[in-house]
Design brief:
four-stranded antiparallel beta sheet
Length: 237
């Protein structure tokens, strides 16, 4: 059954109330409005669906990033726990406990490093002092070895007269000084030389000059001055 039409080509709508006459032009307008409304609804639904998809995509990406972050943190915690000595992690399972023990261990190692640094500085200072002392001793030894050493000792008898003169010289001298000059000096002082014996002991030359004890006047000789003169005489070789 088709709705009744009037003579003008319109459509008559029957309702419980008064009837409404809709023309063809109005019908087209109504159809266009419905079509536009459907298009808008579809567009809005597509936009909402797209936004929902974007939200879900962002949530999924955020979950992936968070999961990756947790995995990386777990690996880092495990690595940190493996680096700590057993006594610092024994009986402790919480990550916060491990972090706290790591801080304690780092401070302990810093104290040890500082103690080792102080000990090293002390040892270096001591080593330098020893090296300087050895260098000074070496200079003294080299200076002593580079120049002859002479020593004169005069022994007297019971009466106070000279009976023996001991002359010591270093090995570097090699006996180069002339004993004849010593004898001449002694003879000029009126001392009679009975004998002279020369020996070498280690790095020293020993010369033992025996003097005639009958020379009573020798008790008046200044022994200290005589020793100095004989030493200076040997140095002027």
């Amino acid at each position: 059954m088709f709705p009744p039409q009037n003579d003008n080509g319109g459509v008559v709508l029957f309702n419980e109330g008064p009837s409404i006459l809709i023309s063809d032009e109005q019908d087209k307008i109504l159809e266009e409005m419905l079509a536009n409304y459907a298009t808008e609804v579809n567009t809005t639904a597509a936009v909402v669906l797209k936004e929902n998809n974007n939200v879900e995509s962002k949530k999924s990406a955020h979950r992936d990033i968070e999961r990756q972050r947790r995995q990386e943190m777990s690996l880092l915690y495990s690595s940190l726990r493996s680096l700590l000595p057993l006594e610092y992690v024994k009986g402790k399972r919480a990550v916060s406990d491990h972090m706290h023990q790591a801080v304690i261990y780092i401070k302990h190692m810093q104290m040890k490093i500082e103690e080792m640094r102080i000990k090293r500085e002390k040892m270096n200072k001591l080593s330098n002092n020893v090296s300087e002392t050895r260098s000074e001793d070496r200079v003294i030894i080299e200076a002593a070895n580079s120049s002859p050493i002479y020593c004169v000792e005069i022994n007297v008898c019971n009466g106070g007269g000279i009976n023996e003169i001991l002359i010591t010289s270093s090995s570097i001298d090699n006996g180069s000084f002339s004993l004849s000059k010593v004898f001449v000096n002694l003879l000029q002082r009126g001392l009679n030389v009975i004998s002279c014996v020369s020996t070498r002991v280690d790095n020293l030359f020993l010369h033992k000059i025996q003097i005639d004890e009958e020379n009573d006047f020798t008790s008046n000789i200044d022994l200290t001055k005589l020793e100095e003169e004989l030493v200076n005489l040997m140095k002027r070789v």
